[in-house]
Amino acid sequence: MDFALSEEQTAIFDMAYGFGQEHIAPFAQQWERDGTIPKDLWPKVGELGLGGLYVSEDGGGTGLGRLDATLVFEALSMACPSVAAFLSIHNMCAKMIDSFGSDELKSRVMEDVIAMNTVLSYCLTEPGSGSDAAALKTRATRTNEGYTLDGTKAFISGGGYSDAYVCMVRTSDDGAAGVSTVLVEDGTDGLSFGGLEDKMGWRSQPTAQVQFDNCNISAANLVGEEGKGFKYAMVGLDGGRLNIAACSLGAAQVALTNTLAYMGERKAFGQSIDQFQGLQWRLADMEIELQAARTFLRHAAWKLDTGAPDATKFCAMAKKFVTEAGSKIVDQCLQLHGGYGYLADYGIEKLVRDLRVHQILEGTNEVMRVIVARDMLKNR
Length: 380
Description:
Layout: H1 7-23, H2 28-34, H3 41-47, H4 66-77, H5 81-100, H6 103-115, E1 120-123, E2 139-142, E3 146-157, E4 164-170, E5 179-185, E6 191-193, E7 207-218, E8 222-223, H7 229-265, E9 267-268, E10 271-272, H8 277-305, H9 311-337, H10 348-356, H11 365-378
Parallel strand pairs: 1-4
Antiparallel strand pairs: 2-3, 3-7, 4-5, 5-8, 6-7, 9-10
């Protein structure tokens, strides 16, 4: 087994890291205070080919594998995990349209999606259906022209900010088989948004309810086939789980790197605090867990890229392990900074807050355990 990154993969990481350090990291704290990401960032991201990471090259995208994509999100999250995670959401939506959308839909929207002139949000969760996503109630009623949508989506990253919304809606009462996927463009009559949510972390991402009240869309905005929407949504989640794990990984790495530097400068009892054996052990424990997380994540991404039958199980395990490891590491880094870690100036407390939600979204870590256990029981 070859665990080394190829020259191309190293170049992908370096490119994303360099972009993040120049265009995101210096402004991340201000964007958090503003509660938004400047829209003019996204076309710059699109110019690098990061707006269509998994979109086929024939379709104008970059055509990267899932392992390659985790390198992008690990690198970008070293600048800001909130911004990196928002890009992951856009790419998940772009992949759904590229994979399942009609030729007409793709020809109409994908050029701007890939260039990130059109920023996409993913709308699955509702106020009464989170982990039980198939219980969604937002209704799409057939009309002569297309569909009329009624219902509410909750916790939507980019709600009221994005240019279009990839929405899972109910076209029949047949459980998961009654769910379809539609694209709703900003400005559509009947589309509105709740107030901005006041969140613990990911504060640079505007988050709001997305509301449909007699919202009429064209039949051409159906993504794929009626009744297949839940399947489409789930296909995207394996990769999304890897991406959110990569965002935890990158943030934990930058926290540990900065903590090592801080400990070499901070003095107590006549010596720098990196000379105390008890603190050295804590550093070692964090490094061991970080490297284990990185290896696990890349193994799971390799499984998904190669179409392994147990890829979903490995993606769930990696998501659970890496997001929890990342949160633990950044929390320990804050502790090693002492009181300074609690101040916004050092950036550690932001990482603690940003990473906490990674254990909730893309399927809670409790649901990840359910996926793993069911696979174990099925194959015993």
